[in-house]
Design brief:
Shape: elongated
Mean pLDDT: 87
Number of helices: 9
Structural class: alpha/beta
Strand content: 15-25%
Helix content: 10-25%
Strand order of the largest sheet: 10-11-9-12-13-14
Largest sheet: 6 strands, mixed
Low-confidence stretches: 189-193
Number of strands: 18
Radius of gyration: 31 Å
Order of helices and strands: EEHEEEEEEEHEEHEHEHEHEEHHHEE
Distance between the termini: 68 Å
């Protein structure tokens, strides 16, 4: 059984910031010492790092939850808690990271050693030394650490290759890869011998080199999920040149030109932009009977049905078995690669905007809803963050939170919605009475 895995869904949770501390100086000969509680440390980020030694997403099959450490709590003498180390998660080259909730692409990781922070750790809460004022020189207030970012991610591996071999099953793609590279793909006289992408490096006689991917055979309906096509069509997206391998001997009983049209239709159905990639038609199995006559008919049909203003794709007759015509094909492929730029995989609409970790000024600070049990429910990113960072073990902190709610207009909004003295108000799992 193949252990190749190219998609995964995982949960990441950055570390929470450490809680700030409430402490006071208690030293000999220092009466009425002031506040001395330090800040908490920063929570650890979750960082993806590209590791060229990895080939699949198999590591994420059984380990789907990644949680960074939280920062240390603040200490006495105004000392800060230690920040947590980042959690490093290694991923293979060619990994695309999407937010599972929005579907937006966060990053496309293709360079060895490339790093990307997928979840940011929370900042440490402030200790009471930060809240001292002339009016309140000995505050008993501290903050809890800021919660770390938590999100669900979709990982998708798209093999890094300059050239992709496409075609129906058993047209000779694996054999071709085995003779032009050092790769050793499984070869057999039956459909779907290749069930995972195989990668190999080609070196031409002129010294140029490029990576070639042999992809599992496509069949009609692949873009709709028939056969193995829907699993592996994504790997063609990174290629700059497509080698369209066709069995010119028609040994499977199919007509070569119909094969050519059917495969192009599947590529177009999966992603219109795949048709932007230049194609070279590889007429394989030319050592077989009837191949020469079939190639002549193929060329006639191709010319008759091609736009007269469009340039016909190059056709190279080869035999993977006898190695006939391979050098010419590889040189032409290298030349075409030199002239073909990289294709942008994602447009701006698919990419998530650069993350902003403050508050959206246009977004409402809070929202009010009514639960089935008649409890008023307060929600909203800003309000929930204030709530999570409030230390409810300290009366002064509770009073400060009440003042913050009043300043945000929560009291007035509840009255306007019909809240009465004694009504229950809920924030998350915390409930309190509304006092008019």
């Amino acid at each position: 059984m193949s252990m190749f895995l190219d998609t995964a869904k995982i949960q990441v949770k950055a570390g929470n910031g450490g809680d700030g501390m409430v402490a006071f100086r208690r030293e000999k000969y220092v009466p009425n010492g002031g506040p001395w509680g330090g800040d908490g440390g920063r929570g650890g980020n979750v960082v993806f790092v590209v590791d060229e030694g990895l080939r699949t997403l198999m590591d994420f099959r059984y380990n789907r939850h990644f949680k960074a450490q939280s920062g240390e709590k603040g200490m006495t003498k105004g000392m800060h808690g230690r920040g947590a180390e980042d959690l490093i998660v290694r991923v293979p080259q060619g990994t695309t990271v999407r937010d599972a909730e929005t579907g937006k692409v966060l990053t496309d990781l293709v360079e060895n050693g490339q790093e990307f922070i997928v979840a940011r750790g929370g900042r440490g809460g402030r200790g009471n030394i930060r809240f001292a004022t002339p009016k309140n020189p000995a505050p008993e207030i501290s903050e809890n650490g800021e919660p770390g970012q938590e999100r669900e991610l979709l990982l998708e591996l798209k093999v890094l290759a300059d050239v992709g071999l496409v075609g129906f099953p058993s047209v000779g793609k694996s054999t071709l890869l085995s003779v032009i590279t050092a790769a050793k793909p499984k070869i057999g006289a039956y459909h779907f011998t290749t069930i995972v992408p195989n990668l190999g490096m080609v070196r031409t006689q002129s010294g140029e080199s490029f990576a070639v991917a042999d992809l599992p055979g496509l069949i009609e309906g692949a873009s709709q999920g028939v056969g193995l096509g829907t699993q592996f069509l994504r790997h063609i997206e990174r290629t700059r040149v497509i080698l369209h391998v066709i069995d010119m001997s028609a040994s499977e009983g199919r007509e070569p030109y119909e094969d050519y049209l059917a495969i192009n239709k599947e590529l177009e159905s999966y992603n219109l932009r795949l048709m932007e990639r230049p194609q070279i038609i590889v007429a394989n199995k030319m050592d077989m009977p009837d191949s020469a006559e079939n190639l002549k008919v193929f060329k006639e049909k191709l010319a008759a049905n091609y736009d007269e203003f469009a340039e016909l794709p190059q056709i190279f007759p080869i035999s993977s078995l006898t190695k006939q015509g391979l050098a010419t094909l590889l040189d032409a492929t290298a030349d075409l690669l030199d002239k073909t730029p990289e294709f942008l995989l994602y447009d701006e609409s698919e990419m998530e905007e650069e993350a902003y970790y403050g508050f959206d000024e246009e977004a409402p600070a809070f929202e009010i809803s009514r639960d089935d049990d008649a409890t008023w429910v307060l929600s909203g990113d800003k309000l929930e963050k204030l709530f999570n960072m409030t230390n409810f073990d300290r009366d002064e902190a509770v009073m400060k939170f009440a003042r913050q709610l009043r300043g945000m207009g929560v009291d007035e909004a509840l009255r306007a919605r019909g809240a009465k003295d004694g009504d229950l108000v809920r924030i998350g799992k915390f409930e309190f009475e509304f006092v008019d």
